[in-house]
Design goal:
single chain, alpha/beta, GMP Synthetase, Chain A, domain 3, 7-stranded mixed β-sheet, 5-stranded parallel β-sheet, 18 helices, 32% helix, 24% strand, globular, binds coenzyme A, binds adenosine monophosphate
């Protein structure tokens, strides 16, 4: 390990290695426990053990109520919405009062500890309040990203079986109002597990039709609860009880319900705020993401609020709302010290304003660091961001499953020298190893599967929602004793990690995690399609974009271009606009091995203009020429 610059990282990581339980026991002192843990780690509980067994706590208390005495007037949330023109500051005191009243409204609908509540909302402060209100009464929230279509929402409703759904009449994308209510009604119609009530926030941009008996008006219910002085208290939950379930793409169309507990989650996030992000309570921390993603859960909502920071709810884009200076305006207007976003946002800004002319209009001296995650941070983008901002640009690597960084450059402990293309080093809690197919460690510099020795640290998923077997099968069976990240990469001589790509069919489009398997299910459902394959191909802006190949059924004599248009529309309808599925290509056949496996990897290399060699097991090599020609005709490859 290169410790030449005096960072406290090597000593901190070594302290964790020497005694993990003592390390996390120390970190846990930052939490207000209702009942302290009986055991820091109990190996006999759960699938691979549980953190802070026997403890009781409340996440909402730690994120909101406990700050009221010391920082009641400080802004907890700053809402800035260039798409509506709205701006608002909500103090910790106001947040506590709103959340307590909202929690009373939810409780009045019969929701109690352990019940699930789905939150399908745009980037408005009420989405954050909804999450905290659930946490307050021990209900388990499951936030569904607004860019998902009705069918995706229905799949999540079926799995989580929520008693209640919290939503808004619409979200706003540049140039279009996305009506949520028709999508929600359709999803409930499609699902076999109907929620008993819906609480809906009417926004001025769209008026939703309410269903008598089931649907309740958010503003009315909240005003009534406040007028009556109704406020729900924070209830005690077990540290090991679920705080939330967040669905993420798996290798099939059925998403995985990642479970996050209360105790370990708080301990890990709080540790990361100071030691990884280098942030102090009272500072302004902005994760420019969406509450529908894990980055939003951990670093728009829970991390900054647990730490007593001001967090930002931004309803806009890095470009086009109104221009590529949007982020710089935010930083200067709100005195933002730390920005966290996906590299794709910076690629979008760079594309529209390569010389950063817009930056000249703003004073962004307050910014101390830029953190990037969600996809590989390409060195060009990192370099550009460093040049224009003059602050450390820190790539860090994590997953929905882990909830916080597996690897990063710990600014709070003293940053290590940056190597472009690497998210630097494992965080304490993670024993990261690179192994071959047989699970044997490989030499420095050699590519392999990236695995983490069990147990995973606090904050990581203990299981999948009511699916211990799927959890074991998806993550633990491939390399016994280790968690399989499904990422591939290597460690260099200095111990720096390099994350090179997924080992499964997950692709990463504009920092959004998508399953090509899920898209193939949609393509295959088209009546004219006999066979299909979806791959992720390189995209200069979004990192990757999906590209679908279809083989038509014999006897179909419609125009392929017509069918391709229908396929594009079908993916948008079934998965949602966020899939960004724009390329469908009709081919006569797909390249396969002699045993019938589709050669997706080779197709991807051809599409990406990467070097490729003829797979020894290919059934008919001529098919690859056909694929190359088809790609060329579409202007790809
Ligand atoms: N509700 C409804 N639709 C949504 C949506 C939401 N919450 N979020 C995105 N969409 C739609 C977009 O409008 C777009 O629709 P279109 O096909 O009609 O144009 C589609 O989904 C694809 O969205 P996206 O991939 O985000 O592309 P974009 O062209 O709108 O914006 C970027 C490109 C780079 C500016 C944008 O992707 C971005 O800001 N990314 C930041 C990454 C990020 O926040 N990642 C989260 C993890 S950190
Ligand atoms: P998600 O669960 O949506 O956060 O996506 C997790 C996946 O995104 C990881 O498994 C990686 O494939 C990818 N990813 C996230 N952060 C990085 C990073 N810093 N570098 C490379 N890949 C990343």
């Amino acid at each position: 390990m290169n410790a030449a610059n005096g960072s406290r990282y090597p000593a901190t990581y070594a302290a964790w290695q020497k005694d993990p339980e003592a390390f996390w026991a120390e970190a846990a002192k930052a939490i207000d426990w209702i009942k302290p843990p009986e055991k820091i780690f109990d190996a006999s509980q759960g699938v691979y053990g549980r953190w802070f067994a026997g403890a009781e706590c409340n996440t909402c208390w730690n994120a909101v109520d406990r700050h009221v005495a010391t920082r009641g007037d400080q802004a907890a949330i700053i809402y800035d919405s260039p798409v509506t023109g709205a701006k608002k500051k909500i103090s910790y005191r106001e947040l506590r009062d709103d959340v307590a009243a909202l929690a009373a409204v939810i409780k009045a609908q019969g929701v109690t500890k352990g019940d699930r509540v789905i939150i399908y909302m745009p980037m408005i402060p009420e989405a954050v309040m909804a999450m905290l209100a659930c946490a307050r009464i021990g209900a388990i929230h499951s936030v569904v990203f607004g860019g998902f279509a009705a069918k995706e929402l229905a799949t999540r409703i079926d799995d989580a079986k929520p008693k209640m759904i919290l939503t808004a009449s619409c979200g706003i994308e540049p140039g279009r109002v996305v009506q949520y209510k028709p999508l929600l009604d359709e999803a409930i119609e499609l699902s076999s597990s109907k929620p008993s009530s819906v609480l809906l926030l009417q926004r001025p941009q769209a008026q939703a039709t309410m269903m008598a008996g089931r649907d309740h008006d958010w503003a009315d219910a909240l005003a009534t609860a406040k007028a009556r002085g109704e406020a729900a208290d924070c209830v005690a939950v077990a540290a090991t009880d679920p705080l939330y379930v967040l669905y993420t793409s798996g290798t099939t169309g059925k998403p995985k319900g990642v479970v996050r507990d209360n105790g370990g989650h708080m301990v890990a996030l709080l540790w990361s705020m100071k030691n990884l992000y280098g942030v102090d309570p009272g500072e302004v921390y902005w994760a420019a993401s969406d509450v529908g993603w894990v980055v939003g859960h951990s670093y728009i909502v829970y991390g900054p609020l647990l730490h007593g920071c001001t967090t930002i709810v931004y309803e806009g884009k890095p470009v086009g709302t109104p221009d590529p200076g949007a982020f710089w305006r935010m930083i200067s207007e709100y005195n933002i010290q730390t920005l966290f976003t996906a590299p794709t946002a910076f690629r979008a800004i760079k594309k529209e304003d390569p010389n950063a002319e817009h930056l000249k209009k703003y004073d962004v001296k307050c910014l101390r660091a830029l953190f990037l995650a969600g996809e590989r941070a390409d060195p060009d983008t990192v370099q550009w961001a460093e040049n224009i901002l003059g602050v450390p640009v820190i790539d860090h690597w994590w997953q929905t499953e882990t909830g916080w960084a597996i690897a990063g450059n710990p600014l709070g402990l003293g940053a290590l020298p940056v190597k472009h293309g690497s998210p630097t080093v494992p965080m304490p809690g993670y024993d990261v190893q690179i192994v071959d197919e047989g699970g044997k460690p490989v030499a420095a510099g050699k590519m392999g599967s990236i695995v983490v020795k069990l147990p995973l640290p606090p904050g990581c998923l203990p299981t999948l929602w009511q699916q211990d077997d799927r959890f074991k099968e998806s993550y633990l069976d491939a390399f016994p004793g280790y968690y399989n990240t499904s990422d591939a990469g290597f460690v260099d001589q200095d111990g720096y990690l390099f994350i090179m790509g997924r080992t499964d069919d997950i692709i990463n489009v504009a920092g959004h995690r998508l399953s090509t398997g899920g898209m193939e299910e949609v393509l295959a459902s088209h009546p004219d399609v006999a066979e299909c394959a979806v791959i992720g191909i390189k995209d200069a802006l979004k990192g990757e974009q999906p590209c679908g190949f279809i083989v038509l059924k014999a006897g179909v004599n419609r125009l392929p271009t017509e069918i391709e248009k229908e396929i594009v529309a079908l993916v948008r309808e079934k998965i949602g606009p966020v899939a960004a599925f724009k390329i469908a290509i009709t081919v006569n056949r797909l390249p396969k091995t002699r045993s019938g496996k589709i050669l997706r990897g080779t197709m991807k290399k051809i599409a990406d203009n990467d070097a490729w060699s003829m797979p020894a097991t290919i059934d008919d090599p001529a098919v690859l020429d056909e694929i190359e020609n088809a790609l060329k005709q579409k202007g790809i490859a």
